[in-house]
C-alpha cells in the first residue's frame, strides 16, 4: 500500500530493517535471509539486519521467518527522517 | 478428458503407525463437526497435518483432502482441485462445474462457487473437506471465493483449514456465531506427558523424568523439535549428556537438532538429503537423474529414509511420490550451499537435471520450474516453445503464460515462434494490446527473412527458433491471431481479410489451422450479417472436425449451424438441424455429452416460438438434466436466457428479469457474436411490464438512436428501440399531446422501421421481417389508421405461416389480438392460421391475466406522489403518512386518490404492485 511505503524505499534507497527472533542462528543463515547480517544480542536472541528494498521484500523475509517456525520478537526500521522534509514521520506517511 | 490435475495433492497422508494419540484434541475436533469451519492456525512443524490425519482416520464422515501449494492462487485452478477432492468421496460430483473450470475461459469465481454450493446442497450425506497448507495460496481472489462459500455454506459441508497464518476470511463473524472451532499453538504444544509418550513410546527411549521435562521445556512442546530431538537421541550413547548440552544451548532448536541428526547419517545419505531438497516432490527415478546415480538407488534410499522416519511424507499409497516435511526441506535447502561441493553452479546443475527428467516425462510445468530455478532463461524459452501446443490444448495455458511472461524482452524478442505463441496465449486471456505487440515482434523476423538480401546477416543470425517445425506455419498463425483480435475489436472487415490470409497460407500445410481460420472468417461474416457465408464456413468446419474424428467438436459446431438458420428465421430448418445433430451418434455416445444440452435448448426455443409449450418444457427439462452433468461452457448462460423467454411469455416479468440478471452474470466473452444483448432483452421485459421509465433508461445507456446507420450486429437493439418509440407514441396519442410532437415521434418510428425492414429483407432474415412488419402494423393502429395497419400485418402472416411462428404474435398481447381478430372475422385464406394464433392468445390471457400488456402511464406521477407511494409501500397508514410528510390528512387523501387514478387501481395493494411493475418502487 502506497501510504505505508517507507519514504526511503519510494526513492529507490532501501531502508534498513532489523528482525529479532528467538534463539540463536549462526552466521551461515545470512545467505538464506538474502544476505542480511546475522548477529546475536545479549539475551540470546538473533538479530537479522540489513537493507530491504521495499515492503514486498520485507514480507518475503517475514515469510521465511514464519516458514522456519522461528518466533518473531520484534521488527524495527532504522528509516531516517527525510532530510528535506523534517516533518515527515519515520513511518513514511505521505 | 483426462484431468491434468495432480492426484498427489488429493492424497490424505495416513496417520503415523507409531504416532501418539492426542484424544483431548480429537475430542475437540469431533465436537466442532457441527460448526462450519475448523481452523488449525499454528507455526510450521507444530503437528497440524499429523493431528488431522489421525483425527480423520477415525472420523465417521467421508473425508476429502486437498494439499495446496503456491500455484493454487488462481481461483479456477483452486476450485477445480477443490471439486476434484470432493470427487474422491462423491464420485461424479460437479462434473459439469469441473468441465467449466478446466475450459480455457473459466466461469467467474462467484458463478463457480454458486454452482459448487448448489451441488453440495444436494448431497445426501455430510462430508469433511480439508484444505491443508492454506497459507501457500496467498491470493485475495481465492480468499474471496472461499469467503463466499463460507457465507452460504450448506450443512452437508464441514470445512477444515490448516495454515501457518490466519487466513483473511471473516473469522470474527464465524467466532461470534459459534461457527468456528480453533486449534492454535497453545493447544497443539505437546504437554510433558505427551512429550514423554512421544519419546518413550514412539522412539523407545528411556529417559529420566527430568530429561523429558528439559526437552519439553527447551522445544516448548514444538512437535518438530521433539521429533528431531528423539531422532538425535537415537544415535547418542549418552542421552543425559545430549539433553544437558541441548538444554544449555541457546541456538535455534531446529538448527541445533538438524545438525545433530544429519551428522549421525552416513555421508552418502547426508548428500542425498541435501541435494534432493531442491525438489518439491520426490520420486526414485527423479533422484537417480538429479544425483546421476544408478537406476534404482533413489527408490531404495527413499524407502530407507522413510523407515528412519526422517520427515519424508508419502504423497500416494504406492510408495512412488514423496516430499520432505516442509520445515525439514527448508532446513536442508538452507544447508545445501554450505556443502563444499555445492556452489551456485552445482546447484543449478541439480535443477537442470531435474528439468531434463521432467521434460522427458512430459511434465512441462515442472520442467519449466526447474529451468527457471537454474536461472537458465534460454532453457525456459526453449522448453516453453516446445511445450506450447501441449500446454495450450490442456489446462496449463495460464501457467505457461506466467513462465514466458517472466522472461526478459531480450530473450523473447529474438524468438519469433515463441513471440507468436505468447501473443496467442495473451489473446486467449483477453490481453489484446500486449498480444498485438508480440505479434509485431514475430512479424519483424518474418519480413526480415523475406527480404533476406537487404537484412543484415548478423541480425538474422540472432534469431532463435527451437521448434523449427513450427516456423513454416508461423505466418498463417499470425494472420489467424490478427483475425481473432480484429474480430474482438469489432473490426469485422479486417477480421475477414486476416482470416482469408490465414486460410490461404495454411491451405496445404496445416489443415487444423486452415479449418480454424475458415470458421474464424465465418464468425465475422455472421457478425456482419452475411449469414449464408457464415453457414458455409461453419458447415466446412463441422465437416472437417467430423472427418478428423472429433465428433464432440462437430456436434458442438452443429449447434451454431442451426443458430444461423434460426437467425435467418428458418425455424423448421433449424429444428431439423438440431435433431440431426442429436441423432448423428448413438444417444450414449461420449461426444454427445457436451453438445446435447445445447441442442435441446435450441429445440426448446423453437418449440416455444411455434406455440408447443409441452415440447418446449420437455426439451428444457432434458437440457437441464443433462447440462448439469456436462455442458459447453456457455450453457449456464443460454439455459437462463431460454428460461427467461418462457417466463416472459407467461407474463412472469420479475422471474424473467431475475433470470436475465442471472444469465448476465454468467456471460463469458467469446468470438461468437452476442447479437441479443441481455440489456436489450431486459428492456423488452420492462416494456411488457409497462415500465417505460426503465426502458427509456436503457435507450440512453445503450446509446441507440432512430437515426443511426443500421448494422446487423445492432439490429436487435434497434428493433428494441422501435418498441420503446412505439410505446411512447401510444402514450402521446392517448394523452392527446400536441400534434407536432406526435408527428415527429411518428416520423422517427416509421422511418426507422422502414429502414430496418429493407435491411432485414436484404439480409434474408424472415424472423426480423415479421417482427418489423408487426411493429409497423401496431404503429399505424396506434395512430388510428386501421386500414394502413392491415397491409404489413398481412405480409407478416404470409411470411410467418410456413415457419409456424406463434409467439411472435401472441406475445404482443391485446393490441395485436384485436387486429388479428378483426382480420379473422373478415375471413380469407389465413383463417385457420389466425384461429390458431387467437387460440394461443386467448389461452394465455385466461391462464395469466397479468400477461395482459398494461399501458404505460399517460400522466406521470409527480415527485410528491412517488414519495407518497413509497411510504404506502412501507406500510404507513394515511395518518402516519400525514405526520411524516407534515401534511394534512386531507391533502394525503388527495394525493392517494390521484395516484390511484393515474395508476388505474382501486386499492393500496394494487397501487404498490403496479408501482413496482412500473419501476417507481424497488423490485421486491
Mean pLDDT of chain B: 87
User: Distance between the terminal alpha carbons of chain B, to the nearest Å?
Assistant: 44 Å
- Helical amount among residues of chain B, as a percent range? 55-70%
Radius of gyration of chain B: 35 Å
> What is the CATH first-level class name of the largest domain in chain B?
Alpha Beta
Mean pLDDT of chain A: 76
Task: Count every beta strand of chain A, where a strand is a DSSP E run of 2 or more residues.
Answer: 4
Can you offer a commentary on this structure?
The complex is a heterodimer of chains A (94) and B (924). With 94 residues, chain A is α+β, with helices and mostly antiparallel strands. Chain A is built from 2 helices and 4 strands. Chain A has a 4-stranded antiparallel β-sheet. Chain A is globular and about 30 Å long. Mean pLDDT of chain A is 76; it is low at 1-11 and 83-94. In chain B, strand 3 (127-132), helix 6 (140-151) and strand 4 (157-163) form a beta-alpha-beta unit. Chain B folds into 6 domains: 7-188, 3-Layer(aba) Sandwich (Rossmann fold), CATH 3.40.50; 192-264; 265-375, Arc Repressor Mutant, subunit A, CATH 1.10.10; 490-661, Alpha Horseshoe (Serine Threonine Protein Phosphatase 5, Tetratricopeptide repeat), CATH 1.25.40; 678-851, Serine Threonine Protein Phosphatase 5, Tetratricopeptide repeat, CATH 1.25.40; 863-917, Arc Repressor Mutant, subunit A, CATH 1.10.10.10. The mean pLDDT of chain B is 87. In chain B, 65% of the residues lie in helices and 4% in strands. At the A-B interface, loops of A face helix 13 and helix 17 of B.
Amino acid at each position: 500500500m502506497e501510504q505505508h511505503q517507507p519514504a526511503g524505499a519510494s526513492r529507490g534507497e532501501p531502508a534498513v530493517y532489523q528482525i529479532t527472533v528467538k534463539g540463536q542462528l549462526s552466521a551461515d543463515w545470512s545467505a538464506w535471509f538474502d544476505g542480511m547480517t546475522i548477529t546475536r544480542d545479549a539475551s540470546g536472541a538473533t538479530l537479522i539486519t540489513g537493507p530491504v528494498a521495499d515492503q514486498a521484500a520485507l514480507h518475503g523475509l517475514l515469510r521465511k521467518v514464519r516458514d522456519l517456525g522461528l518466533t518473531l520478537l520484534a521488527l524495527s526500521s532504522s528509516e531516517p527522517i527525510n532530510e528535506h522534509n523534517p516533518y515527515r514521520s519515520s513511518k513514511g506517511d505521505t | 478428458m483426462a484431468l491434468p490435475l495432480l492426484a498427489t495433492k488429493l492424497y490424505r497422508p495416513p496417520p503415523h503407525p507409531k504416532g501418539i494419540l492426542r484424544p483431548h484434541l480429537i475430542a475437540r475436533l469431533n465436537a466442532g463437526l457441527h460448526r462450519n469451519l475448523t481452523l488449525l492456525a499454528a507455526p510450521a512443524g507444530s503437528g497440524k497435518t499429523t493431528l488431522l490425519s489421525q483425527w480423520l482416520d477415525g472420523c465417521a464422515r467421508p473425508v476429502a483432502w486437498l494439499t495446496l501449494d503456491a500455484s493454487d492462487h488462481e481461483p479456477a485452478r483452486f476450485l477445480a482441485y477443490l471439486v476434484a477432492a470432493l470427487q474422491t468421496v462423491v464420485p461424479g460430483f460437479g462434473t459439469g462445474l469441473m468441465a467449466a473450470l478446466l475450459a480455457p475461459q473459466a466461469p467467474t469465481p462467484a458463478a463457480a462457487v454458486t454452482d459448487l454450493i448448489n451441488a453440495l446442497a444436494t448431497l445426501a450425506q455430510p462430508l469433511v473437506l480439508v484444505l491443508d497448507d492454506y497459507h501457500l495460496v496467498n491470493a485475495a481472489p481465492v480468499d474471496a471465493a472461499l469467503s463466499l462459500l463460507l457465507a452460504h455454506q450448506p450443512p452437508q459441508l464441514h470445512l477444515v483449514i490448516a495454515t501457518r497464518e490466519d487466513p483473511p476470511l471473516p473469522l470474527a463473524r464465524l467466532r461470534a456465531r459459534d461457527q468456528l472451532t480453533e486449534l492454535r499453538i497453545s493447544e497443539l504444544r505437546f504437554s510433558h506427558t505427551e512429550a514423554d509418550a512421544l519419546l518413550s513410546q514412539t522412539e523407545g527411549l528411556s529417559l529420566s523424568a527430568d530429561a523429558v521435562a528439559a526437552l519439553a521445556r527447551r522445544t516448548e512442546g514444538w512437535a518438530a523439535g521433539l521429533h528431531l530431538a528423539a531422532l538425535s537421541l537415537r544415535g547418542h550413547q549418552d542421552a543425559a549428556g545430549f539433553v544437558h548440552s541441548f538444554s544449555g544451548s541457546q541456538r535455534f532448536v531446529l538448527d541445533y537438532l538438524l545438525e545433530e541428526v544429519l551428522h549421525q547419517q552416513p555421508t552418502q545419505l547426508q548428500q542425498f538429503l541435501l541435494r534432493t531438497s531442491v525438489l518439491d516432490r520426490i520420486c526414485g527415478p527423479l533422484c537417480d537423474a538429479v544425483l546421476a546415480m544408478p537406476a534404482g538407488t533413489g527408490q531404495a534410499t527413499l524407502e530407507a529414509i522413510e523407515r528412519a522416519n526422517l520427515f519424508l511424507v508419502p504423497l500416494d499409497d504406492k510408495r512412488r511420490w514423496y516430499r520432505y516435511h516442509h520445515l525439514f526441506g527448508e532446513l536442508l535447502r538452507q544447508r545445501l550451499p554450505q556443502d563444499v561441493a555445492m556452489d551456485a553452479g552445482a546447484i543449478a546443475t541439480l535443477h537442470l537435471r531435474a528439468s531434463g527428467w521432467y521434460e522427458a516425462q512430459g511434465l512441462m510445468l515442472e520442467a519449466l520450474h526447474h529451468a527457471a530455478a537454474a536461472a537458465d532463461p534460454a532453457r525456459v524459452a526453449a522448453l516453453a516453445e516446445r511445450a506450447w501446443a501441449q500446454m495450450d490444448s490442456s489446462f496449463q495455458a495460464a501457467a505457461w503464460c506466467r513462465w514466458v511472461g517472466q522472461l526478459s524482452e531480450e530473450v523473447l524478442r529474438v524468438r519469433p515462434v515463441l513471440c507468436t505463441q505468447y501473443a496467442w496465449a495473451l489473446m486467449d486471456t483477453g490481453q489484446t494490446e500486449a498480444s498485438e505487440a508480440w505479434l509485431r515482434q514475430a512479424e519483424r523476423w518474418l519480413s526480415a527473412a523475406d527480404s533476406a538480401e537487404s537484412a543484415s546477416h548478423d541480425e538474422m543470425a540472432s534469431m532463435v527458433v527451437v521448434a523449427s517445425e513450427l516456423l513454416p506455419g508461423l505466418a498463417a498463425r499470425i494472420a489467424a491471431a490478427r483475425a481473432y483480435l480484429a474480430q474482438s475489436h469489432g473490426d469485422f472487415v479486417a477480421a475477414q481479410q486476416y482470416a482469408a490470409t490465414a486460410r490461404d497460407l495454411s491451405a496445404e500445410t496445416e489443415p487444423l489451422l486452415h479449418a480454424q481460420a475458415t470458421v474464424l472468417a465465418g464468425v465475422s461474416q455472421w457478425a456482419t450479417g452475411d449469414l449464408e457465408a457464415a453457414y458455409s464456413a461453419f458447415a466446412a468446419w463441422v465437416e472437417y472436425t467430423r472427418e478428423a474424428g472429433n465428433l464432440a467438436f462437430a456436434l458442438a459446431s452443429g449447434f451454431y449451424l442451426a443458430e444461423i438458420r434460426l437467425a435467418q428465421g428458418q425455424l423448421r430448418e433449424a429444428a431439423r438441424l438440431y435433431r440431426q445433430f442429436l441423432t448423428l451418434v448413438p444417444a450414449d455416445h461420449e461426444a454427445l455429452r457436451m453438445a446435447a444440452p445445447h441442442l435441446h435448448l435450441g429445440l426448446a426455443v423453437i418449440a416455444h416460438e411455434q406455440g408447443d409449450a409441452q415440447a418446449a418444457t420437455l426439451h428444457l427439462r432434458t437440457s437441464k438434466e443433462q447440462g448439469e452433468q456436462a455442458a459447453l461452457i456457455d450453457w449456464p448462460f443460454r439455459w437462463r436466457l431460454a428460461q427467461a423467454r418462457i417466463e416472459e411469455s407467461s407474463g412472469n416479468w420479475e422471474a424473467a428479469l431475475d433470470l436475465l440478471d442471472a444469465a448476465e452474470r454468467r456471460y463469458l466473452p467469446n468470438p461468437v457474436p452476442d447479437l441479443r444483448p441481455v440489456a436489450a432483452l431486459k428492456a423488452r421485459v420492462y416494456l411488457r411490464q409497462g415500465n417505460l421509465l426503465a426502458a427509456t433508461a436503457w435507450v440512453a445507456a445503450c446509446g441507440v438512436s432512430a437515426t443511426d446507420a443500421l448494422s446487423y450486429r445492432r439490429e436487435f437493439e434497434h428493433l428494441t428501440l422501435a418498441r420503446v418509440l412505439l410505446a411512447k407514441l401510444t402514450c402521446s396519442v392517448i394523452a392527446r399531446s400536441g400534434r407536432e410532437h406526435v408527428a415527429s415521434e411518428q416520423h422517427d418510428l416509421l422511418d426507422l422501421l422502414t429502414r430496418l425492414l429493407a435491411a432485414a429483407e436484404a439480409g434474408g432474415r424472415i424472423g426480423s421481417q415479421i417482427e418489423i412488419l408487426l411493429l409497423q402494423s401496431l404503429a399505424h393502429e396506434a395512430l388510428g389508421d386501421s386500414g394502413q395497419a392491415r397491409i404489413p400485418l398481412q405480409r407478416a402472416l404470409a411470411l410467418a405461416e410456413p415457419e409456424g411462428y406463434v409467439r411472435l404474435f401472441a406475445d404482443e398481447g391485446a393490441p395485436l389480438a384485436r387486429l388479428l381478430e378483426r382480420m379473422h372475422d373478415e375471413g380469407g385464406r389465413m383463417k385457420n392460421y389466425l384461429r390458431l394464433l387467437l387460440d394461443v392468445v386467448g389461452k394465455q390471457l385466461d391462464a395469466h391475466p397479468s400477461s395482459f400488456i398494461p399501458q404505460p402511464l399517460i400522466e406521470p406521477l409527480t415527485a410528491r406522489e412517488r414519495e407518497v407511494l413509497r411510504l404506502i409501500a412501507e406500510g404507513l397508514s394515511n395518518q402516519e403518512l400525514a405526520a411524516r410528510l407534515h401534511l394534512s390528512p386531507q391533502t394525503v387523501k388527495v394525493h392517494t386518490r390521484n395516484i390511484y387514478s393515474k395508476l388505474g387501481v382501486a386499492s393500496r395493494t394494487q397501487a404498490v404492485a403496479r408501482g413496482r411493475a412500473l419501476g417507481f418502487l424497488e423490485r421486491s
